[in-house]
Amino acid sequence: METLTGAAELRAFLHGLPGVDQVGAEERAARLATRSIKKAAKAEAIDLAIAMVDLTTLEGADTPGKVRALCAKAIQPDPSDASVPKVAAICVYSDLVAEAVHALKGSGIGVASVATSFPSGRAPLDAKLADTRRAVQDGAAEIDMVIDRGAFLAGDYAKVYDEIVAIKAECGEAHLKVILETGELVTYDNVRRASWLAMMAGADFIKTSTGKVSPAATLPVTLVMLEAVRDFRARTGRQVGVKAAGGIRTTKDAIKHLVIVNETAGPDWLTPEWFRLGASSLLNDLLMQRRKLTTGVYAGPDYFTLD
């Protein structure tokens, strides 16, 4: 792909992207959401969804003890059933990365850290870089950065682009997930532009939301982002992942997202390496549905630990 050397070129490229047919995107997402998933396929989808979960706690009241408990659940989601897959990653604030890394040692589960003034994205670049640097030094394998939506909506695409490039440089070997906060981008055209902007700046993943703004990971938004990564790979040869986060609480929600992935981007994205579900309460519902499929009986909601 050609290198864009200035703000004017960047703007021209982003505004030259094909517009999103709002009605078409919403109708296609709604149609795919009605797909019937039979028992064997549902069992496979549930295990895949569990393996794609970024088990998340992002509250002001988070403690080292809560993070250690969450890490134990990530390793063995259902202590009574060793066949349940472990999750993809734990996602925490940067000051708790070291605690999570220690608790997950030897498990193969990565630690993701929200950095760069999460969830607002409004802080001086030096502060964002320092936050990222600390998380990486403490062992974070993934950085979930949030873009400055104010700059994006004001049309200052170059500022957003340059910040992503700078954060990516601080990541070293850690993967960079760029959070678009799609609920604040207003239009699907903006979601498409922000997706391409993030990928062009070096994002390894593009992520829907912080989970702090509604609406978050709607199916049409996820569809537009999946179209973007598909088209970006066709144009550049580089594959970028997608993370849907915020509002995904049930097994039905998760499976609908997997169908959207398969039918939009294709099966190459149907792995934890390329698609993630950011969630806290979702994991318990997946475990309850899994138990129902294997035993015929629902476990009560208090059977599994609360996240």
Short description:
The protein is α/β, with parallel strands linked by helices. The protein is built from twelve helices and eight strands.
Describe the secondary-structure layout.
Layout: H1 7-15, H2 22-32, H3 39-52, E1 53-56, H4 64-75, E2 89-93, H5 97-103, E3 110-115, H6 125-137, E4 142-146, H7 149-153, H8 157-171, E5 175-179, H9 188-200, E6 205-207, H10 219-236, E7 241-245, H11 251-264, E8 275-279, H12 282-295
Parallel strand pairs: 1-2, 1-8, 2-3, 3-4, 4-5, 5-6, 6-7, 7-8
Written description of the protein model:
With 307 residues, this protein is α/β, with parallel strands linked by helices. It has one domain: Alpha-Beta Barrel (TIM Barrel), CATH 3.20.20.70. 47% of the residues lie in helices and 12% in strands. The protein contains twelve helices and eight strands. The chain has helices at 7-15, 22-32, 39-52, 64-75, 97-103, 125-137, 149-153, 157-171, 188-200, 219-236, 251-264, 282-295; strands at 53-56, 89-93, 110-115, 142-146, 175-179, 205-207, 241-245, 275-279. An eight-stranded parallel beta barrel has the order 1-2-3-4-5-6-7-8, surrounded by eight helices. The protein is globular, with a radius of gyration of 19 Å. The termini are far apart. The relative contact order is 0.15.
